[in-house]
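User: I'm writing a short report section on ligand binding and want a predicted complex to refer to. Could you take this sequence and magnesium ion and write out the structure as tokens? A short remark afterwards would be nice.
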Amino acid sequence: MLNKRVEDALNAQINAELWSAYLYLSMASYCHAEGKSGIARWFEVQFKEEQDHAQIFYNYIVQRGGRVELKAIDAVPTSWTSLLNAFEETLKHEEKVTSLINNLMATALEEKDFATQSMLKWFIDEQVEEEDNARTIIDSLRAIGDNGYGLYMLDKELAARTYTQASPLANSGF
Ligand code: MG
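Assistant: Sure. The structure tokens for the complex follow:
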């Protein structure tokens, strides 16, 4: 049986992951409005990955005999001052998600919930990658500055991002 404190924290994380998905879809639409469909594509893949993250927590709660409780998803920002600003906010957001995952792990440790600790290991590793991805693109955008050709090339590069399911744990069965 799933510990109530752990169950509540996992439910809160479903909401946080869905909020992340919503944020990145909003960023994708901002990029489209800025004429950068390749960068928009990068955020659209990010949107799908965040839905996978929510699905993993959902599946896990169900599998442990817990109760999923879906709460309202808060509104997200709809515009940013620049593409660089959008990626700076992405990094800031992922750093926050990392702290949420760390807090979840701390709760699972306190409650001696070993199965949840094992499941969270994937997210601990994933967050290292998420922060690194955002940082790499921030570095590129800072190097490019206002160079139109540089932005054009970055847009082409990020257009190549393809979606692959985040983890087999995201298999929903529906
Ligand atoms: Mg996530």
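A remark for your report: The chain is about 75% helix and 0% strand. The mean pLDDT is 95.
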